[in-house]
Amino acid sequence: MCFCLKYVNDIDVAQIFFVFLQQINYYNYEVYFFFIFVFFAFPVFCPSKNNISHYEQIGLSMQKTDANGRIKFARFSSNEKSIPQNAEDFFTNYLNKELNDTFVQNRFKKSKNGMSFERYQQYYRGVQVKEGHYNFRIQNGRMKIASGHYVDVTGINPIPSITEEDAINQYVSYLEIEKEAIRESSTSLLIKEIPKQPKSREIERIALVYQVLIKRVDGRHVDVGYIDAHDGQLLFQVDGRYYSSANGYFYTHYNRNNNDTPKRGITEYDSGKFTLWDKTRGNGIRTLKNHPLYPDFEDYDNIWTRSELGVDNYALDVHWTLEQIYDWLSVFFDYDSYDGSSGYIEAILDSYASSSFDQYENNFTFGYDSTSSFGPFASIDIVGHEFGHAILHHTTGWSSGDGLQRILHEGFADIWGIIFEAHINPSADIWKAGEEITLTLSCINDFQYPKNPTAYLQMLSTYDKNNHLYKNNQDLSSDENKNLIKIYNVSNQQLKAIKELEDERFVLDTSSWESGLYIIQYVSKSGMYSAKIMVR
To answer: CA 134 to CA 503: how far, in whole Å?
Structure first.
């Protein structure tokens, strides 16, 4: 399956996964999932003669609509007789927008294979509708995916009854601050959905508003309020710190270009310093230091260099990659964060040579141990792998503990890592996992050549449903290979071998082991089994 996967666009594969996960969550039957996966997913990954993915050949279409019957999401099959040719065709003949509504393109990107990605913002009689937007994916004059949100503004009077100055004065009066305390103020005329509660998806009303931004002299406070443009009432305000976000320069550990040009990432400014806290994406992305109090990383000029952060410089890779993953899911799938609901993303640095997603604490851990044969666990595919665990957990409720659910967790997380890396860094060797973090070997896993002897782990080809372990197809005919346990550390050094077993059962006492990741191989008469354990 790994060889065929490279012929399918990364966004196609990601969309298929979302279909799978939503169906699993809806029906909650593992048997149903396996039926879909075997019958439907496997041929999707295989290339056709004309390089059209299989789900398009069989005429798969999807459509979701809002309460008013307007399209929220649509996938158009190539077999359909009527397919939008472009955004204007979609808005006119498929969305059935109102006459006074217009959509203006504000983002465009074209891939090497001719696929264009376009984003449009809704306007009503020249006034921006803040929450109204649509994203499209178009190739060869045929639309493939449309997703977004249409705001019905019928009955809204777009001509304000009060002036911008009136709106500013009204908000300043509400804040109870003196005009001398204001360094800068600005307004934007918008049509906005007003929620019943902050961060609530339940909309109370739609109103013409002035978005008023107040920056104070002290440089720390930024206030944002929405004033009704007709009666001057304060309808809604947001956490002012949201707008104290700034553009930082990240000199990342991995993923550098030849000129070592810094990456751009969002940070948070407070009390004269910047932290790795992005409040512009969903409910936030925050990257923190190690135990015990999880303090913020801090910088005073927002130019984050590797030397300043020392061994923790890979925090910049983690933070930047999480922002890129968030944007890709949001723009191309209208899916925010790992749960589709703008979930808070917290990443913590650790001192172990490993990475993980904690389904109970709902956070991520990325580690580095200078004594191991690995660099920091912070490359794009590693971060993407852990984010894949979070997506699967929040869409299916599956546990990443033992058994079949863990096996599926690892498999899907591997493919998410491939997808994210293919999008964020297309020039990378996406079929190797962890190739940037291994210091003495070629990679951790090689998906294109599963038996690659230079990889840290050789991928195992079949699954033993009775023991919930992967089973390797290798020659076990020699008596010396039977009833043998081999234990390896993260440096791929064999620590011990145990041959005396009773009834092929064994118990490992890890109380004296050093903290870290270990690989356990068990060879018996029926085959060879491998498992990973983490000792803390």
So the answer is: 62
CA–CA separation, 277 and 279 (whole Å): 6
> Alpha carbon 17 to chain centroid distance?
13
Neighbours of 528 (CB within 10 A): 21
Please report, as a single letter, which amino acid is at residue 468.
Answer: H
CA dist 74 and 68 (Å) reads 15
For the chain, the 3-state helix, strand and coil shares in percent, each to the nearest 5, are: 25, 35, 40
Q: Are 41 and 30 in contact (CB under 8 A)?
A: no
Task: Classify burial at 338, counting beta carbons within 10 Å of its beta carbon; exposed 0-12, middle 13-18, buried 19 or more.
Answer: buried
Strands 345-350 and 363-367 come out as parallel
Q: Using CA atoms, how far apart are residues 141 and 137, in angstroms rounded to an integer? A: 10
Whether the Cβ atoms of residue 458 and residue 472 lie closer than 8 Å to each other: yes
Please give the torsion angle defined by the CA atoms of residues 488, 492, 493 and 499, in that order, rounded to the nearest 10 degrees. Answer: 30
Question: Distance between CA atoms of 301 and 230, rounded to whole angstroms?
Answer: 42
Residue type, 285: I
**CA nearest neighbour of 97 among 156, 157, 155, 151:** 151
For residue 39, what is the DSSP state? I
Tens place of pLDDT per residue across the chain (536 aa)? 232 333 344 455 555 555 555 444 443 433 333 333 333 333 333 333 333 333 333 334 678 888 888 998 888 877 777 788 899 999 988 988 888 999 999 888 777 677 888 889 999 999 999 999 998 988 888 898 888 899 999 889 999 999 999 999 999 999 888 888 888 888 999 999 998 876 667 889 999 999 998 887 765 566 889 999 999 999 988 755 434 567 889 999 987 766 778 999 999 887 778 999 998 888 899 999 986 677 899 999 899 999 999 999 999 999 999 999 999 998 788 888 998 888 899 999 988 888 999 888 889 999 998 888 899 999 999 999 999 999 998 888 887 665 677 778 888 899 999 999 999 998 889 999 999 999 988 998 888 888 788 888 876 544 444 554 444 433 333 444 455 666 766 555 555 555 545 444 556 677 777 777 777 766 655 555 566 677 76
Chain centroid to Cα 283, Å, comes to 14
* All structural domains of the chain with their residue ranges: 1-60, 164-238, 245-433, 467-535
Q: Whole-angstrom Cα distance, residue 241 to residue 279?
A: 8
10 Å CB burial of residue 261 (0-12, 13-18, 19+) is exposed
CB atoms inside a 10 Å sphere around CB 389: 24
Distance CA 137, CA 109 (A): 10
**CATH architecture assigned to 467-535:** Sandwich (2.60)
Instruction: List 222's β-bridge partners, or say none.
Output: 215
Q: Which fold has domain 164-238?
A: Nuclear Transport Factor 2; Chain: A, (3.10.450)
Tell me, which fold does domain 245-433 have in CATH? Elastase; domain 1 (3.10.170)
Is there a contact between 202 and 196 (Cβ–Cβ < 8 Å)?
yes
DSSP letter string, 264-308: EEEEEEETTEEESEE-SSTT-EEEE--TTT-PBPEESSSEE-HHH
